[in-house]
Amino acid sequence: MKIIVSDLRTMMIFVRYALDQSVKNFYFIQELPHVFEDNLKKLMLCRTHNLPSNSSRSAELLGTAMPNFVGFSAVKDGGYVPVLPGLSLCSLNEVEMNNIDSNFQVILKKMSKKDATTKFKALQEFATLCQDAELSAVEGMLPFWPRFYCALSIDIDHRVREAAQLAHAALVKRVGKGIAMYLKQLAGAWFTSQYDTYPPAASAAINSFNSTFPPWKIVNAIIHCQCEILLYISNNVIVHTAQTLSTQKSLTNEEMEAKYERVLVANLQGYNCYFKKVPLDEIDKTLEIHNKILSSSRFWKLAKHDALPIKTAFFNVLTSIMENAGKLLENEKKRTVTTIMNSLDESEPVILSVVWESMLIATTKIDDWHLVVNINKLVLPKLWHTLRSGGQCCASTVYPNLLPFVSQFPKFNIDLTNLYTNFFNNMRQGFSVKSVQMSRSETLAVTTSFIECLRYSILINTENVDLCVRLLKEQLMPVIEACMTDSIFMKQCCFIEITHLIRYWSKNRNNEKYKSYISLMEQFWIELPLLFEKYMNMSKGIVCTADGKDSHIEFLLNLKDVPDRTRKKLKVKFSDPSDSVTVSEPKVKVVDVYADTVFNAELCKFVNGLFDMTKEIASCSDEQYDFEKNQKLILSAFEIPEIRSLLINNEGTSEIVSILCDSLNGRDDTCSMQFVAFITKLMTLMWKHNRTISSAVQILETLFELCTREHDALTADTIRNCWKEGFVESSQILSIFEFNDLIKRYGIIIWSKVYNIHASPIKNTLVLDHDISDTSWDKLFLQLEVIRLFETVVQHIPQKLKQEYWDVILIFLTKWQQLYNNAKHNYSDIKITMLIIAFSQLYYAVETLMNKHKLKPIPELPSTLLDEWKNVIASNIYNGIVQTWIFIQLGAYYALKYMVPELVQHDKVLVESDNFESSNLNIKKFEEVLSNIQTIINTMLMEFKLCDTVTCTIQPFTDSYTYTLGYLLTWAIVLDICEKSHSDLRYQYAEILKIKLFPYLLDNIFKLIPMEALQDNKNKTVKLLELFTTAPVFRFKESWTEERLDHIVCWLYTNCLRLLPVLVRQWLSTVDSRVSATVDKITSHYVSPMLCEDELLYSRLQLANVENMQVKVHSTAREVVAMYQMEDTKLELSIVLPPNYPLGRVKVESGQQVDGMAKWKNCHMQLSKLLTHQNGSVWDGLLMWKRNLDKKFAGVEECYICFSIFHISTYQVPKLSCHTCRKKFHTRCLYKWFSTSQKSTCPICRNVF
């Protein structure tokens, strides 16, 4: 706007008008005198000082005395407002400002402020007012709305822009068709706001636009306002800059640039949408504006703009123009193609995708595009760079466009052989790019595009046989080799695509249209054997595929059964609860469209030639023979998942296995270790395929037969381990019937070897003339297996035994007594125990058979066998049977005692695991045994009362004595397990024992306890003290009397008090007062002194060198005094044991407090609880007290449930914290709180935890 000012009065009038009407862009073209300029500044300063200082002050003035409406005086703060055709400045002469509703005046004034929050709230009020105000008031405000809307729709604050669109939607909805007369003023901003970079603002604009115009009228509305829209876009794209678009001084350069970029993106996207929606004949009506935009250098410079959204929007516009209005670029053809080709190797994936889309449209729509650019200097270098880089991390977008681009190659005036060679060479280099290998979609795009381009290139050049064969040799075969030898990720996709390509050539080789296909297939079968030979001669470091197959076998499998390359359409299906759920194995869909018998015959011929080396492997016995090459090929042929069919058919598999097994069975010499390892690997692979399981079983039988031969120690161990692995595998795969049949065949093999040898070698296997402890484990195992074999034969097929074998069995049994006599001196040896048990089982089997034979004669048995058994053998054996049972009990006791550390260690690992269950503890295995024998003992002692004047005395060498001894020995083992465990594990053991087992043990102890202990003797005899204070010694050579049983009973009670005092106290609380007093007296007289002495001595020894703590022990007073010192703070603690410890309550007292320290009641309470109600020792309690104090001084909070730092059983610090009050709790304390309170709230703040 240009205004000429001639005098001072006119200038003042104009200035006043400019302040009222927000006219910012005025220019003085006549130079004014300096006095005029000074007066102008004074006038503007005076005008400014009269304005309110803030929004609240302005509202106050408006509320007290309503002035005339100031129009757009403050819109200058909103920045540049586009001037559209038909939108002129409102003046007081044109519109009666005072007729606008006062509420709208206040809100519009707020919209004019600089503050974004003020404008945002004003727009919200405006939207509400549009709904609630009278329609006439809303229509009266309409003339002023377009200017505000155009300014606010491009505001720097995204909230304001969104609110402006919502307010505009509310206004349009209210006035309806009344907006028509202002539509052209709003069209530019309204149309482009639908592409605002802030999605909520864009969505609001789209919704308001679509709700205003029905779908069938949207295009007509755009056409109606297209001149205004295009002028708006043209001004923003090629006229304005960041400075002219935002003229308010409050914005920084960065904010102005950001606003400009946002507006530019929205306008370019709107321009793109315009070409997609408006018909071509309507576009022709605005050619002048389009030519103005497309001929501007500023428009084309946007292709190199730094902002990615602008570049993306630019290429979208270019693509849309070429697709819908190509003739607009008729004069800009060279600039268009050059711009696109210059950007082919963009590094940004977002830009690259739109550039290649533009390139595809350009090569399709512009016929002579290759003539307006230099192919060699511009296009091809960019293309080669993109291919070498794997599509610049955007292969899934770039590579699908390569095939249309390859179709343009014949147009180029370039040597085709070199062109295709360079193209595929660069494409193969892109295979190794990291972005291609790490993404499945990228891999699929690259491999598919490579094969498609190769297939198309050969198809259009089928007459050029030399070129086609060259492409096969130089491009396809190197890709196959790379897939076989290199660890590239795309081998699976490559193999599938290559298989389809080869099958396609083979199927169409006889078609006259494709002359080169015959030569291609001939060359393929020439190159493939060379490739395999090269692969087999390579080093061992070739990486297999993910499922364990060698790559070359995987390729052959693909050639044999062509996989389907179509993607599955996955659907979600919810199962009916009544339907049974079945899990099916995944299957590979095989395409059967290539029914090519010629190709199948060629492939079969090739495969059969690879496996002719089986006989060479089987016939070679030289240890120096190199098995690697041929064995690897055979093994790899079976390294295939079960869902895929094997390369070799059933007959071929059976032939290979038969040759290998027959070669082993026919050898008398020592077999090769490499050969054994080879057939073991082969067997392992064959288990994976249903149709080769029978062959695997055949190999397993051969290995078992090898185990029965004589070998050196190393070979024997290797063969045995190989057989064991296969045997375990067979037990999991074979059905019960098949597995039992396999076991029978094993038995036939063993029996055939045993039955055909003389009995004397078997008899010589049992050597009892020297000490069994010195016998090696190998010889002992042989003796045990021979005895167990005879036991099994006697039980199942005694009629098959010859007389000489019966003689051996009877000789074995006569030596049983000799073995027992020799074993008395070394009864704790596990070897002797195992041998005694084996002989006992053999004796039981023969005795059972003789009883049956006596009742019903078995004709197949030797006629003199029964008489010999009754008159000679049995009488000698019966004499030592009773002693043998006790020996067996003691042997089992020592065997279990030997295993206790391992059992406890296993439970320690289990209790610390995440999936811990108490039912898996080893002590549970004793529960059933104890329950069964406990029932017998309870029945035996049911007539006796606890601590009665008459106690039960059990005579030796009776069934009662045997049962009682076994019961007590079992409990001795259980208590030994408790002794070896830590406190947390011992707590788990106690939970298992305390209800059904431990109370009955104490009942039976005080029914079996010696009478002397129950009598009120003031003088304790040494003999009685020894019963309670010394551990019993189990010696076989000593006589077993009732006194030895008494010793075990008394010692068990002492161990119960030492290890599980809590359970004893719980039991004591359930008995009557008479029994309780007696038990208390016995404990005080015989047990407590020793336990107190042990506790005090152990505590002094363990705590002697503990840091920050000194311990003093007063044995006479049964007192432990501990002093904790940290810097200048000292704490003293006294623990006094009761006379009947551990039945009585332990007294815990605080000593002298130094330096004014507060009382530590929580620590003392926890310590007292540990010593009284837990199975804790004094040493455990003092250590816990010290750790609590250490953590206290270190600042660790205590648990607000138990008020202790360390949990009394797990010794863990509080870890679980409430999210509200931040108080910490032990895990077990919190779990107990939840379970007992039936709530899931915090114990302190009562909020949900």
UniProtKB/TrEMBL annotation:
<dbReference type="InterPro" id="IPR001841">
    <property type="entry name" value="Znf_RING"/>
</dbReference>
<dbReference type="GO" id="GO:0005829">
    <property type="term" value="C:cytosol"/>
</dbReference>
<dbReference type="GO" id="GO:0061630">
    <property type="term" value="F:ubiquitin protein ligase activity"/>
</dbReference>
<keyword id="KW-0833">Ubl conjugation pathway</keyword>
<dbReference type="InterPro" id="IPR054477">
    <property type="entry name" value="LTN1_E3_ligase_6th"/>
</dbReference>
<feature type="domain" description="RING-type">
    <location>
        <begin position="1199"/>
        <end position="1246"/>
    </location>
</feature>
<dbReference type="Pfam" id="PF23009">
    <property type="entry name" value="UBC_like"/>
</dbReference>
<dbReference type="InterPro" id="IPR016024">
    <property type="entry name" value="ARM-type_fold"/>
</dbReference>
<comment type="pathway">
    <text>Protein modification; protein ubiquitination.</text>
</comment>
<dbReference type="InterPro" id="IPR039804">
    <property type="entry name" value="RING-CH-C4HC3_LTN1"/>
</dbReference>
<dbReference type="GO" id="GO:1990116">
    <property type="term" value="P:ribosome-associated ubiquitin-dependent protein catabolic process"/>
</dbReference>
<dbReference type="InterPro" id="IPR013083">
    <property type="entry name" value="Znf_RING/FYVE/PHD"/>
</dbReference>
<dbReference type="GO" id="GO:0008270">
    <property type="term" value="F:zinc ion binding"/>
</dbReference>
<dbReference type="Pfam" id="PF22999">
    <property type="entry name" value="LTN1_E3_ligase_6th"/>
</dbReference>
<dbReference type="GO" id="GO:0043023">
    <property type="term" value="F:ribosomal large subunit binding"/>
</dbReference>
<dbReference type="GO" id="GO:0072344">
    <property type="term" value="P:rescue of stalled ribosome"/>
</dbReference>
<comment type="similarity">
    <text>Belongs to the LTN1 family.</text>
</comment>
<comment type="function">
    <text>E3 ubiquitin-protein ligase. Component of the ribosome quality control complex (RQC), a ribosome-associated complex that mediates ubiquitination and extraction of incompletely synthesized nascent chains for proteasomal degradation.</text>
</comment>
<keyword id="KW-0862">Zinc</keyword>
<dbReference type="InterPro" id="IPR054476">
    <property type="entry name" value="Ltn1_N"/>
</dbReference>
<comment type="subunit">
    <text>Component of the ribosome quality control complex (RQC).</text>
</comment>
<keyword id="KW-0808">Transferase</keyword>
<keyword id="KW-0677">Repeat</keyword>
<dbReference type="Pfam" id="PF22958">
    <property type="entry name" value="Ltn1_1st"/>
</dbReference>
<keyword id="KW-0963">Cytoplasm</keyword>
<dbReference type="GO" id="GO:1990112">
    <property type="term" value="C:RQC complex"/>
</dbReference>
<dbReference type="InterPro" id="IPR039795">
    <property type="entry name" value="LTN1/Rkr1"/>
</dbReference>
<dbReference type="GO" id="GO:0016567">
    <property type="term" value="P:protein ubiquitination"/>
</dbReference>
<dbReference type="InterPro" id="IPR054478">
    <property type="entry name" value="LTN1_UBC"/>
</dbReference>
<keyword id="KW-0479">Metal-binding</keyword>
<protein>
    <recommendedName>
        <fullName>E3 ubiquitin-protein ligase listerin</fullName>
        <ecNumber>2.3.2.27</ecNumber>
    </recommendedName>
</protein>
<keyword id="KW-0863">Zinc-finger</keyword>
